[in-house]
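User: My instructor asked us to take a sequence, write out its structure as tokens, and then describe one feature of it. I'm not sure where to start. Here is the sequence I was given:
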Amino acid sequence: MLEGKIIKGIGGFYYVKTNEDIYSCRARGKFRNKSLTPMVGDIVNIDVTDTEKLEGYVTEILPRKNELFRPLVSNIDLLLVTFAVTSPEPSFVLIDKLIVTAEARKIPVAICINKCDLDEEKAEEYARTYELCGYPVVVCSAEIGKNLDSLRELLRDKTTALAGNSGVGKSSLLNAIGESFNLKTGSVSDKIQRGKHTTRHTELFPLSFGGYVLDTPGFGSYELERLSFRDLPSLFPEITRHEGGCRFAGCSHIKEPDCSVKDALIEGKISESRYESYKELYEQLKQIKEWE
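Assistant: Let's start with the prediction itself. The structure tokens for your sequence are:
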């Protein structure tokens, strides 16, 4: 019996990284009987059936500390929301939707602002927005190598999910810190290529200084799932900090008078862009019938 971490799942095979090797494994039938599916990120026990071919079976899934359903992944230590100062222009509603999803799943969040060499003033303005929320922020540039040590320290010894639109420089940043893998296709051994097809899949890539990064389809088109509009204020930490003084219980912080959140907004304790995202997401969630 060996313990390891599932770093990739494709074609009914799970690739489990132990201390020394990567084993290709099937899942025991008992998981299907329990309607339980192994996920990338799971810590599992495996029975080895062939020590030369490095093959085996997943026999046990250890308890998960968190999980996402799009993508299907577990045990994330950090969601690194990455966007560029410009080229492409950031979509703050998408950025804040990603953050809300992580907050709902109890996944720690950090912000990486790339391409700061294109507009340092705007980069600092965006950084202040998220520092007001209490999130760690790294302002960096893959192009000129700025603040890459801070990025390494943020990623070190964690399983980190990279989130952000195409073109923001996720691959460039990883290459700049010395990690040279192709995030679109993945650099894997011939063994892991078995069953490979053109459909994108979830995969963890090991970092040379400790930890893993995850790049996966699905983040760019994330939708809010399994959330009620009533939950939303608690998923914006800066709103949670300032909502205690509202006149009305259950205040939405949008139209009601004597709202301490709107007072904090006027005082600059909550950023305008975050508040606009909050209002837009609140309206989106209100349109979803709660029994759907």
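For the description part of your assignment, you could build on this observation: The longest strand covers residues 2-10. Try explaining in your own words what that tells you about the chain.
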